[in-house]
């Protein structure tokens, strides 16, 4: 699944970018990286993907891959 999401994410598909962020956050099919998870969630969130916006907020709330920031969360 990782390869397919990565291909779609690189083509700019917000849903795939969010899914790729989730894979990175959970370490599924790839080494866990909260930084990469945030990177992909942010790309999708900036495109208006509501799920990605929620996921990005969670990263800020928990301080995973970013400095904890309740205002941004």
Short description:
The chain has helices spanning 2-10, 14-26, 34-46, 50-62.
Approximately how much beta-strand content do the residues carry?
Answer: under 5%
Count of DSSP strands: 0
Structural class: mainly alpha
Rounded Rg: 11 Å
The general outline is: flat
N- to C-terminal separation? Answer: 28 Å
| Mean pLDDT over the residues | 97
Biggest sheet details: none
Q: How many helices?
A: 4
Low-confidence stretches: none
Q: What is the element string, with H for helices and E for strands?
A: HHHH
- Helix content range: 55-70%
Written description of the protein model:
- The longest helix has 13 residues, at 14-26.
- The chain is mainly alpha-helical and 73 residues long.
- It is flat, with a radius of gyration of 11 Å.
- It has helices at residues 2-10, 14-26, 34-46, 50-62.
- Helix 1 (2-10) crosses helix 2 (14-26) and helix 3 packs antiparallel against helix 4.
- The termini are far apart.
- The chain has 4 helices and no strands.
